[in-house]
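Case study 2.
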Amino acid sequence: MSKISNYYKYFFIVSFIFSYVTFLNLSYTDKIIDGNSFVNVSNLGRNDSGYIRENQYAIDVLHYDLDIELTPSPKLLKAKVTITLHLLKEDLNSIELNFYDNLKINSLKVNDYESAYSHTGKMLTINRNEHFSDTVKLFISYEGTPKRVGLSGFVFGTINNQSLVYTINEPEYASSWFPCNDIPADKALLDIKITNDKDNISISNGKLINVTEMDSRKSYHFKTVYPISTYLISVYSSKYSLLEDQYISASSDTMPLNYYVLPGQEEKAKIDFEEHSEMIKFLSSTFGEYPFIKEKYGVAVFLWQMGAMENQTITGIGSNFITGKKFFNDMLLHELSHHWWGNAVGVKSWKDIWLNEGFATYSEVLYNEWKFGASARISDVQKIKNHHNGTVYNPDQLFSGLVYNKGAWILHMLRKETGDSNFYAILKTYFNEYKYSSASTEDFIKIADRVSKKNLTLFFDQWLYTDSGELQIEYSWYIVNKNDEYELKLTIHQLNQFRTFEFMTDVEFQFNDVSQNKIEEIIVDKKEQSFIFKLKNKPVCVTLDPNNWLLASINIKSETNN
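Prediction:
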């Protein structure tokens, strides 16, 4: 998921106001209905306690077969779902699924037999009966108007008097519109059929199998060949315009790139989306081939105007981010990179959310560095040198700047600690070993240790598991002329009030003289330390961390030249 970065806030405020007047020659004033869900993303935590129950870890969903009918007016959802699941405990006393009780169940069957159940709050419970077996097939038909929850949930929206239906499930709101085991690690295969009025295009995850017309209605059938987490299952349906492109892999596989935009946005969208093939090539060469190559990649416009959402193979993006100016390339790259970090390699629990958002944020840095050089890397990490107070692992808020920015900085410092070759090998190994499954923070650390051949326990304890904030460093340097050489004394003082970092990644410092700029490395592991260097030429400037590798506020105290 992307939020608007600080870098773009001014632009967004101006463009958002402007869009209501002239954007794409559409009259937006008072025309976006039920779409502008301006939720404070940074305050969104996990769902209420008790949402996931112990019995839910004792089932493994194998397949969801969803068949939904949309009636935008009066915002009615009618659906049938067949859920195939495996019981991991022979004596399981009930099957429990997440499902909001405002949706009315018309029929529920277990292995083709009507079954008793209870449906209260956000939980659907089917008590064990004689029809239970190792593999259970549940059939549930239901209807109603889904609640607006979380960032959006299931939305019957309207723009310019045209219906636009969309979903944002993250983190735990898929159950607001279909019964599911809403645990991110319980991935399953998906078939989904979406029926709406004939003039609407309906879109979901995976590959389009067929389109069926029925008088004034049209049904789209999508199928995944790769497993998917419930929070990434998506629906979009509107009077879209379709733009088409393709990606050709290094092994000559051709994959469709499909972009669904509002009428009137086509020319600007062509400009905004034209780098996707190049982005996929970069990410594939850096981490491993695009993991959903047999399906597609696409982007669909929706009405949530605070960012974008990486629904598997079909990212959703706010309609106001189509500018024709490529102002939001970083956002597009962020969502695309989630198809490696979050979609293919999922999280075992929401405690590990930095493995999604920190990795996607640092992918932005890597892409810009590849495209524009090291200066772009230095600039990009400087822009996210904020929101670092708090613990990255198991954060209080899932989508705060802490998770995105400090999560990215942890990877940035890991890269410096292990070296580029090991760092990229760590990412490729992590991707290959956990692709199409789920990983925990501890899983990632084990791979980092193994590939780098280093014990990184102190590194991760310092930056990931504690509320470390950022380093506060003050330094001074002093030069003494001794015969034909100079002695440089560098003193570093850690000012952090509550703790001294016992382990710190190698710290660079650069000293400039009349003939050269030289960089040396030191390890700082005490509150105050001094280092002495003998030099042939007299330094005129000493700079700590010149390439911006350390998450720190660094100030020079004094300098003395004799």
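The chain has ten helices and 31 strands.
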